[in-house]
Structure formats: C-alpha cells, structure tokens
C-alpha cells in the first residue's frame, strides 16, 4: 500500500509540474514524412493568392503529430517569459475564445499556469513571430534556450516588415513548416514518390463531418457545420480527439480546430503575408460555406506575422541533420500506412 501511495504522489507531482511549466521538458510527438522527391499539385487561394504547385518536398522530415498545445506553450512561457519583452503572452488567451493560459506576478517575475482540462487543447492567440521563437527555443534545447537565434535569426525583431524577411537557417532542427511541408503532411496519399493527393486532411475526398463520436468512425474534424463541434467554453477539441481521422502520414487536426501558421511568405492581392492553412473551429454562421471549405487542400488564407487571433495556432516540424536525410527518405519506401478510401 505504501508503495502505491508513493507512486501516486510521484505521478501527481509530475502532472502538476507539466501543467504549471516549472521544470518539465516539452515532449513533441512527431511523425516522419518520407517519399522524398514527390511531385506537387496545383493548389492555391483563388481570388486572394495565385495558385501554385504545393506539396513537393525533396527531403525527409518529421512534423508535429498535433498542434502545439496550450500546456506545451505554458512550459515555454515559464522558461523564457519572466519579463516577456517580445510579447509571447497575449492577455486575450483568457478571453472566452482563448486557450486559458493564466499569467501571474509582475514583470521580471511572471509565471504562467493552465488548468488540466485546457492543457491538451491547441494554443491560440500566437503570432508567427511567437511560433518562430518557440522553434528557436526547441532548437536550443528548451530550458533557458535562446529565442532569438537558432532556427531563425530574429534578434529582437517584432515589426511586420522585418518578420517577413526572416528565413530558416541552414542548420535549423525545429521550424514552422513551410507550405509545402505542411501541405504534403496533410494531403499527400503517402503512396510513394507521386503527385497523388486527397482533398481533405483526413485521408479522403469525401467532405468530413464535425461529430465527436466514440469511437471516432473516421473523417471527422472540428469546424462549424450548422453547429459547433464543441461549444463554450472550450470551442477547440483536445488534440487528436478524432483518433481515426488522421492524415496519410499520421497527423491530426490539420483540418479544423485552428488555422496554422506556415513559414512560407505568399504574395496576396494586398501584399506579402505569411500563409495559413487548415481552417478553424468556426466563425460567422452566415459564412459556413466559406469556413467549411477552408480545410480543403484547395484553400489557404494569410496573416501578417505579428497577428494573433482566437482561431489561429501552429505546429512545428523537425528537420533531421543532413547526414540522416537519406536514411529518412529510404524509410519512406518501406513505411506505407493503410488508408481509408471513401
């Protein structure tokens, strides 16, 4: 009995540490994306941006299985944002659509916490610059790791113009996915070095439903379809909620839940901005057709890199060292997951 009490106490302490962000490392679950050298397909933004060939990637990489969660971002804030000079925390995170990360204390002694029922939902109200600093922190080993150099040389940059000029460093190990990396992981059929893509990031050309069922029957996502998948107070589902609705490479929620930042700068009709893909949990019901379509491969939108909103989050990609790229590419020849055809 005493042994079990000790184990339970240790487990409780681990959960508390992970939620409060006091010491636990962020564990980022990723999936490999192989089939190096696949061809892309024509896909774009219609009236907002020119169509382009998307999804062609000539190297192997890993991508986050899930969107970065509020719990993981809380760890990041506790590690680097005691003063928060770059505005990594947004007070809107506590509004009715926010991910409910709480900040306490005064500048220089800020601390951050999140309730357990929010920790596994995606972080929102994060800018492209916030996502790049999170990637730098991951690149630099977390903890007290630098946020200003590593995968991206930011050097205190916060302005729109300067952020748009930022590019990935050659030795980056963690990064915001490019549009091609993101698109391939979401839609490519994982059937070899081909140009074959599904229309939706649930491994199908059939329109998904937005139901939460147990067990998940597949081809479901969190978006507005006559009603919200989950309403107040959560709006977003926990990452991986739709356990049988993954992409051909094994990612979850690349359709719905939150729009996700891409690294790629896209030329829109009103100027250059960073692309976003995947759609979100909802919006104005009068625009249901527009919002519903946004999870499709043919659709994308955009945002200024300093923008932060309740419908916007991100995931990260892990870029192997150059010596391992060929090995990862070879692995894609042997690991082909079964897919549902509907």
Counting DSSP E segments of at least 2 residues, the number of strands comes to 12
Report how far the terminal alpha carbons are from each other: 52 Å
The CATH superfamily is paralog of FGE (formylglycine-generating enzyme)
The count of domains is 1
Order of helices and strands: HEEEEHEEHHHEHEEHEEEH
> Which consecutive residue ranges, at least 5 long each, have pLDDT under 50?
1-23, 283-293, 323-342
Which class best fits the helix and strand makeup? alpha+beta
Beta-strand content bin: 5-15%
CATH architectural designation? Alpha-Beta Complex
Number of helices: 8
Task: Note the topology.
Layout: H1 2-20, E1 30-33, E2 41-43, E3 52-54, E4 61-64, H2 70-80, E5 102-104, E6 111-113, H3 116-119, H4 128-139, H5 160-164, E7 174-175, H6 179-187, E8 259-268, E9 271-277, H7 288-293, E10 301-303, E11 312-313, E12 317-318, H8 322-334
């Amino acid at each position: 009995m005493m042994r079990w009490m000790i184990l339970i106490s240790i487990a409780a302490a681990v959960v508390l540490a992970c939620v409060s962000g006091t010491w636990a490392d962020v564990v980022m679950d990723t999936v490999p994306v192989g089939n190096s050298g696949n061809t892309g397909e024509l896909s774009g933004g219609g009236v907002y941006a020119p169509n382009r060939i998307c999804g062609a990637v000539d190297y192997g990489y890993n991508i986050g299985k899930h969107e970065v969660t509020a719990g993981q971002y809380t760890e990041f804030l506790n590690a680097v944002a005691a003063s928060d000079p770059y505005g990594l925390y947004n007070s809107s995170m506590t509004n009715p659509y926010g991910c409910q990360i709480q900040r306490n204390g005064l500048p220089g002694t800020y601390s951050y916490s999140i309730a357990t029922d929010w920790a596994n939902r995606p972080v929102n109200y994060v800018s492209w610059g916030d996502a790049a600093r999170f990637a730098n922190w991951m690149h630099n080993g977390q903890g007290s790791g630098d946020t200003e150099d590593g995968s991206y040389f930011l050097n205190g940059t916060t302005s729109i113009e300067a952020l748009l000029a930022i590019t990935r460093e050659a030795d980056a190990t963690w990064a915001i996915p490019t549009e091609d990396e993101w698109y391939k992981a979401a839609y490519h059929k994982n059937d070899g070095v081909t140009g074959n893509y599904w229309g939706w990031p649930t491994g199908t050309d059939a329109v998904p439903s937005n139901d939460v069922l147990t067990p998940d029957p597949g081809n479901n996502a969190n978006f507005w379809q006559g009603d919200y998948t989950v309403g107040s107070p959560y709006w977003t589902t926990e990452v991986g909620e739709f356990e049988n609705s993954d992409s051909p490479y094994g990612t979850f929620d690349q359709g719905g839940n939150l729009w996700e930042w891409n690294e790629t700068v896209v030329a829109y009709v009103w100027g250059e901005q960073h692309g976003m893909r995947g759609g979100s949990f909802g919006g104005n019901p009068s625009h249901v057709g527009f919002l519903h379509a946004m999870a499709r491969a043919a659709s994308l939108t955009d945002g200024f890199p300093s923008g932060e909103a309740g419908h916007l989050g991100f995931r990260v990609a892990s870029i192997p060292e150059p010596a391992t790229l060929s090995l990862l590419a070879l692995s894609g020849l042997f690991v082909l997951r079964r897919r549902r055809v509907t």
